[in-house]
Amino acid sequence: MAASMTTTAPTAVRRESRLRENIRLVLSYALLFLIALVFLYPFVLAISTSFKTLPEINERPVALIPQTFTLEGYQRMFALNVGRWAFNSFFIATTVTVSNVLFSALAGYSLTRIAFPGSRFVFLAIIGTMMIPGIVQLIPMFIVLKTLGMIDSYTGLIIPKMVTAFGIFLMAQFFEAIPREIEEAARIDGAGRFRMFFQIVLPLARPAIVALVIFSFQGSWNEFMHPLIVITTNQDLYTLPLGLAFLRGGLGQNLQWNALLAGSMLTTVPMATIFFFFQRYFIEGISYSGVKG
Amino acid sequence: MATGIKQQDRQDAIAGWLFMTPALFLFAFFVFIPIFFAIYFSFTDWNGISPPTEARFIGAENFRVLLLEDGIRRADFFKALKNTAYFSLGVVPMQTALALLLAVVVNQRRLRFKSFFRTAYYFPSITSSIAISMLFLFLYQRNGLVNQVLQAITFGLWQPIAWMADPRGLFHIIFGWFGLTLETAPDWMRANVLSLPVWDWISGPSVALMGIMLLNTWTTIGTMMVIFLAALQDVPREVYEAAEIDGANSRQVFFGVTLPLLRPTLFFVVTLGLIGTFQVFDQVYVMSAGGPAKTTLTVAYLVYRNGFTNSQMGLAAAIALLLFIIIFTLTLVQRRITEGKKE
Q1: How many domains does chain B have?
Q2: Residue B188 counted as domain residue
Q3: Hey, are the CB atoms on A193 and B12 less than 8 Å from each other?
Q4: Burial A246-258 (b: 16+ CB within 10 A, else e)
Q5: Closest Cβ–Cβ partner in B32, B35, B230 for A291
Q6: What is the C-alpha to C-alpha distance for residues A88 and A96, in angstroms, rounded to an integer?
Q7: Would the CB atoms of B320 and A35 count as touching at under 8 Å?
Q8: How far is CA B243 from the centre of its chain?
Q9: What digits encode the pLDDT tens for the residues B61-71?
Q10: Do B20 and B140 share a domain, yes or no?
């Protein structure tokens, strides 16, 4: 009697906890799918709405399937030069990303692997600027660009963004972790700093570079405040976010939703495509910055 | 040998500075020097249009007008500060709690489709703030999706509202249920404190501001969830197993084991949230331009509006400087709390 008690009681407890765990799992799934819907459905509705006619949008703004399928919104956007804006966004994001990776890697390497006099001070000064909020830098940036005559130009859009404190920080973190013996071996073979950097250390830092490429490109593609202050009159230099914001103001109270949402989707879809192919790196990148920041 | 090392040191010093040159040059021109410019211009009356050399030095006048002189500029500054504070107080706890909850749920060992959920929740974080603002502007219309969903889940009780055109404060609405309105409010509530009536200070976020708050929470949860997930994955499985053997239920495990281990990450996320919310700008620019009735006027938007549309660049520089001091202080307080808790 006593013996059977001791054998059945734990299994009963275990069965009960197993049941409870299963209930919890089912509830988790329900909750998680519902939340996924909250995060994704707005995009689905936006895509659908960008293919609707204006009267239909006013009448049935939440219907998922367009009654009459139209490219009116996209046509209007292309008539407004959205192609040029997309080119600008792409060109700026690419240039900024390439230079940011190169300059950040050079600086990060120099600051962590070469103990030159003053390196500690320079490192702290640069990392310290990460504390300065972007909005606070808005006016100083404008003053400098105006003084240098870089308002309303590609150079004003690109050059100030060619290196970031975050990029230097990220690369420095990685170089720090590479064993020094690797370079010692190269030094004995008579390699100079340039060869060590480009042939040995840089290839080892590939994960960090991929993360930085993604961060930079995403940051530049979505950037709004900087182009907003740099571009004051020349609409040919608009980026996608800037053009979109301009349209929202320009179209007055009766917003042409199919065109605005078509523009929003043209801004979102390229980034979304990159995200779906490289999402591992997005998430790794954010984890680096999160845990080590 | 000794000369060899010395020569190598010199070569290293040259290489070190050479590698730094592009970054240093860019930082000098676009970060370090501009900061001094900005401090200087906050003491001038520059309008942002005429050449910067024509700016007139006016001492601390901008700061006096913002902080000491009763008038529209002080009223706007404190209104913006009030709105930003409500924004931050609403968004930071909401995004942190939801991100943590999602991270813990997604991190469950036996859960499947993990990467789908992670991807779905993170997705809004990678999109353009302007495109998303446009999309939410559409969803927030009177006959839009948000109102229709609220109506469906309250079985028709919800009265559709034009979210982004609604200046009513949340606390004012709640006071109204108890019969307290501006008309019935006691006299002291109509008195001005820092150019703003007490009644305005206690308005709570307006409906329009709450619209932006919800949007901001929605787009940032994913990033914060990923940060929490990374930290959760560093927790050794044995820790949970030990807690289970001790007979702890899931709530006890969460509050007794997970949360204490996540404390550094939690404070990091809160700091990120504070810095982010105190700078909210893009969404305001697209969705409300500070309106209705200045209830979505944030400090960041006020900086922009004064500097770039009202041609008061000197005043805007002063506001930006004050904002920096506020954010810096908040971060320090935050750090003090973190370190205090560690001991």
Answers
A1: 2
A2: no
A3: yes
A4: bbbeeeeeebbbb
A5: B230
A6: 12
A7: no
A8: 36
A9: 999 989 998 88
A10: no
